[in-house]
Design brief:
Largest sheet: 6 strands, antiparallel
Number of helices: 1
Protein name: DUF642 domain-containing protein
CATH topology of the largest domain: Jelly Rolls
Keywords: Cell wall, Glycoprotein, Secreted, Signal
Structural class: mainly beta
Pfam families: DUF642 (PF04862)
Subcellular location: Secreted, Cell wall
CATH architecture of the largest domain: Sandwich
Length: 380
């Protein structure tokens, strides 16, 4: 199997490296993360789009044969270097941006050493696509922290989804890795990986008159400017660091989608959350309350102007109160505001938001209502 044609680049070792057109960074307009010159900054990791590839002598067909062949990365196991439009049997392997990506086959890992600021919380955003495996998942880890991201469900018509993972830096350096734990009869059957970026998360202070942290969802994972599908925030345990500060995603395998105003209709501000998994995933935040005191929970519910049509309903729970807000979506944007009052029954009250139904766009991809501007205030 032949890779698409690339211009050779002379390496320091005197060989040639595969080089895809490096126009992506210009299109993105983001600051590239740096290793050699210091702490990583918001944006793509070094060679985070895999446009710089291995020397031809380090390839056996598409398989990368040496641990350090892909610039800025270390690889282990069955890793392939893939060109956009390349075929596997009857499958065309597309790449979300640029011309190249990597594929993680059986028990394969890619990793990169990051220089970070201790005690700072970071989120990693990366694009992944299923290929021919049946139950694909990825183990993502930074230093001692790790999480399993289920990627069986595809949320975009292109087949590529962006995922977020967060960690808190314990030291000034950390190894970031993505591992495919699968073992298929065809060792090449694993997910494609591309477009890996980092962002330092700044825990937002409580807004005046709102007891919820990040109730407007303005702080969250890196969203690639030239991708229109948002970022999936996976389920997490209560001990995990959330890429959506203040909020947890409670589910077995499903996610919520973090969206931006550049590509979606957002009720307020620049960011919001689309509930794309029906009742199988919920946004959760715990907040300190005074038993016996009354509170008001309010939120905006709408649609993302992404063609998701029909009656949408969001249920919100707090203490013994339930609020169901219905919004009739035409798929063109818009929102409505709703509120419920309740009496706290404990020192800690859990606020839960979830979509009442499953929704699907005409192209078969999952979608759902958008929630934004969630507020909790105490009443006299």
């Amino acid at each position: 199997m032949q890779l698409i044609r690339r211009e050779p680049q002379t390496s320091m070792a005197g060989g040639t490296r595969s080089r895809c057109p490096v126009l992506l960074l210009l299109l993105l307009g983001v600051t590239t993360a740096r290793l050699a010159s210091g702490v990583v900054t918001d944006g793509l990791l070094p060679n985070g789009n895999f446009e710089l590839g291995p020397a031809k002598s380090d390839l056996n067909g598409t398989r990368v044969m040496n641990q350090n062949s892909v610039p800025n990365w270390e690889i282990f196991g069955f890793v392939e270097y893939i060109g956009s439009g390349q075929k596997q049997d009857d499958m065309i392997l597309a790449v979300p941006e640029g011309a190249c990506a990597v594929r993680l086959g059986n028990d394969a890992t890619i990793r990169q050493k990051l220089e970070v600021i201790r005690k700072t919380t970071y989120s990693i955003t990366f694009c992944a696509a299923r290929t021919c495996a049946q139950a694909e998942r990825l183990n993502v880890s930074v230093a001692a922290e790790s999480g399993v991201l289920p990627i069986q469900t595809v949320y975009t018509s292109s087949g590529w989804d962006s995922y977020a993972y967060a960690f808190r830096a314990r030291h000034s350096t950390a190894w970031f890795s993505i591992h495919n734990p699968g073992h298929e009869d065809n060792p090449a059957c694993g997910p494609l990986i591309d477009f890996i970026a980092i962002k330092a998360l700044n825990p937002p202070p409580l807004a005046q008159g709102n007891m919820l942290r990040n109730g407007d969802f303005e702080e969250g994972p890196f969203i690639f400017p030239d991708t229109a599908w948002g970022v999936l925030v996976p389920p997490m345990s209560e001990d995990d660091v959330s890429p959506l500060p203040g909020w947890m995603v409670m589910s077995d395998t499903k996610v919520v989608k973090y969206v931006d105003a550049a590509h979606h209709a957002v009720p307020r501000g620049a960011r919001a959350v689309e509930l794309v998994a029906g009742r199988e995933a919920a946004l959760v935040q715990d907040v300190r309350t005074v038993p016996g005191r009354r509170y008001r929970l309010s939120l905006s519910v709408g649609d993302a102007a992404n063609g998701c049509e029909g009656p949408m309903a969001v249920e919100a729970y707090a203490a013994r109160a339930t609020l169901r807000t219905t919004y009739e979506s035409l798929g063109k944007g818009g929102s409505r505001r709703a509120a419920v009052e309740f009496e706290a029954t404990a020192n800690l009250t859990r606020v839960v938001l979830q979509s009442y139904n499953h929704h699907m766009k005409p192209d078969g991809t999952l979608c759902g209502p958008v929630v934004d501007d969630v507020s909790l205030v105490g009443l006299r």
